[in-house]
Amino acid sequence: MEFLTDEQAARYGAFAGAPSRVELERFFFLDDADRALIESKRRQHNRLGFAVMLTCVRFVGVFPEDPVAVPTQVVDYLAEQLAIEDASVLKAYGERENTRLGHMRELRQVQGYRDFAEVEGELREWVDARAWTTGDGPKALFDAAASWLRERRVLLPGVSTLARLVASVREAANQRLWDTLCGVLSVGQRAVLDSLLQVAPGARVSELDRLRRGPVRVSGPAMTRALERAAEIAALGVGELDVSGVPPRRLAELSRYGVDGKASLLRRHSDTRRLATLLATAVHLTTRAVDDALDLLDVLIATKLLARAERETTREKVKTLPRVERASAKLAAAVQVLIETTSEQIDTSTGEVFPPAASLVEAVWERIEAVVPRRELAAAIAAIGELTPPLDSDADQAWRAQLVTRFATVRPFLELLTSVVDFGATPEGLPVLKALRSLPGLLGRKKVAPAEIDTELLVGSWRRLVLSAPHAEPGTVDWKAYTFCVLEQFHRMLRRREIFARNSSKWGDPRAKLLSDAAWEKARPMVLASLNLPATAGEHLAARAELLHATYTEVAERLPANSQVHFGEDGRLHLAALEPEPEPASLVELRQAVNDLLPRVDLPEVLLEVLAWTGADTAFTSLTGGEARLADLDTTIAALLVAHGCNVGYTPVIGSAEPLTRDRLSHVDQTYLRHATYQAANAALITAQQSIDLASAWGGGLVASVDGMRFVVPVPSVYARPNTKYFGRRGGATWLNMINDQAAGLGGKVVAGTPRDSLYVLDVLYDRDGGRRPEMIVTDTSSYSDIVFGLLTLAGYAYAPQLADLPDQKMWRIDPRADYGPFTDAARGRVDLGRIERHWEDTLRIIGSIHTGAVRAYDVIRMLSRDGRATPLGDAIAHYGRIAKTLHILRMADEPGYRRQIKAQANLQEGRHALARKIFHGKNGQLYQNYQEGMEDQIGALGLVLNAIVLFNTRYMDAALTQLRTDGFDVREEDVARLSPFVRHHINMMGRYSFQLPELPGGLRPLNPAP
């Protein structure tokens, strides 16, 4: 029982406070069979007592020893169903113990309740299987085991009995995991792995510490070091070991411990545990090192080579612009004279035609030199020839020529790139990959013949730069220019995954990750049922076509009465701007009254109180998989959330108390705080938020929005990207986060730079931390594309982007002959149902692979779109999405309330981001993390603090509303729905902080006295 707190042990098999309304309706509702049993009892107190026994064993897993002591809400709810007016008659039930015991025997027989001893062996097998596959901690396993017993109508054993079973089975499963992994290692491999924990002479860190540090700077030498690191890890020889017998989740759990834990801690473990952890870590680092190297290569080519060459070329053009302008003006003047003197002249008043003013060359030159001397004209021609590209060049030649001068950046790592990374390619990418592999053989040679390169790859100005370089001897090519020609196309193919890395997880082939034929056949029925999709497309597409036609017709009929819609001369649809909803005086008064009642607190007190309400601090489990052996862990967790969430570091939260010492903070930070524990803690906060009446007044949790919040990253990082609009001269990252209409943040994802949100929306939706699955998804225009519309619709979401550029959006139809009135010209696109039907099976497999987690939606979208052009399958999905897109536009035109709902959800997200900026105030709100995991962890802390403040505000605002109603204040429900949980005037977020939580006898602190 050591892993259970006294409070948790006391809650086992008992009521932990009054059940929620949802729990009452689920466990204490009496169906017809229940009523038939109850009605056989003669007196009211016996019927009510029997109902208590019947429902309580269903809820807590044991028969109550004192039925009178159950929460009054339970008794009242049961009495109401049984039409018993006076619930206090239950007291008479407790007077005869034999009656209670008789009812227990009857319920055991009729309901089929069993003793624990009958199923102990079966439970051991179930706990063992769960512990082996999931790696859940003992608390989670204990709760799951109790639920398993209740579901099978097994009376719960004593708390110590179940705790001992869970602890022993989990320990045996862990030992089996370590033995299994250790068993695949040879003696030599064990020695190699153990050597990773040694500190080399003259070094300050172990070999493991050195190898798990990824690249942060973007440069040619850093790229070389990243590839050397990948080669060194691959040389350990464990990446190819067969570890398929271990569940992937357990392997990932061990590798996370190895990547984040200290080498000194690993050395103290038993041989099998230490070697198993090192093996999992080495397997993880084998692919992670390649991921890091290719991430760095992507940034290096995009920002340090291509973008810089374009910038430098632009600067050079700006410098030469005055010379070009002067030379061009002289040439223009000379040509104007030439045209005027050698062309026939027409008198516009009489129409008379005169011969050219000069017919001899000498006369023409005489007139030209009167305007521009021949010497200056020759100089102008020379300047134009020098400063402008040839007529047969393209717009890219200047910057490509500039790019060739940066060959020294890429030469050191070219050979390493093809030897360390195991590249593969599709037929389209294969020629480029072959060319890439041939590059090391060209380096440093004085002469390279055209026959030694693939001239088919020389597109545009590359042909001139490679084959006709001024400095190249006749019959040879400029192999440096050819190298960059290949690298440019390789970079594009790599991003499109036409070229992929087999020994990488992030840059691998998404096609290989799609469900295989056998796996798809197995998952297909579940996917189709879950997403409500048909196996064949015919009837489904016919129904979609009928819906689109009917919607066009109905909306067109209502247009005369719709003042919000008008059509331009070109037939494009325009919607009038929504007028802001006025704020009635009652709303202003209510908002002020509620805000006045909110208690004044420090941010740490908010966090400590929320952790106490929700038990979210128990989600922060140790990397080692063991239980916390630290008193007042919640205080340390709260301090670290302030340090990271407010971006202020340790100094303001360090105190003299043991939970706040620097050593304790550092240990807990490294051991307990990580992305997975943030997610688990956030799930507890989301659950608590949705149980509050005020949150239900805001929405049902079925509408959500996804939007990005930008952070400047002022430190060198591969995971930051430039964007002068958002980040100035530095790099940055985007926190793409999701919030539902109850103001709860459901999760998020940190992505480098400012990529199109549409690439990541589905991944954010499928990786939410908790809460109800939203049905309607709101985004801004940058998150929109027809393919994303199709995938989201297939996944069962109603997609509602704001479409700020609505007049430029093409509306689509299926029947080209249909007359849709004013929409006829706007509906200028045609959906090809045949194309959708031809690709339906592949479409189902794509969405099934995303739905089951086999592949990331990001990789699929990149695969379906090539340089802005969709593949045939991507085009079919886009056509499917255009039906939903057009229905969305028609609804926006027809329902102002729909537009307001979209705008309100977008405003809610903006309010959350504004609060996030106030919280994340330290270091000018900049993100000082140079590795992706560090960014995710710190932003995870910010997201958790945000949800904690929202939960704190919602609960106290709900209490304030109750108080105001009691005091006779006119509280209108329409005003309640417009209150915001993002108020912050009452919370101190700056300065040195207090981590003392006052006694809260009623569960809440007193409201602030009304002014």
UniProtKB/TrEMBL annotation:
InterPro entries: DUF4158 (IPR025296), Tn3-like_transpos (IPR047653), Tn3_Tnp_DDE_dom (IPR002513). The keyword DNA-binding applies. Keywords: DNA recombination, DNA-binding, Transposition. Residues 605-993 form the Tn3 transposase DDE domain. Residues 3-169 form the DUF4158 domain. Belongs to the transposase 7 family. This is TnpA family transposase. It comes from Actinomadura viridis.
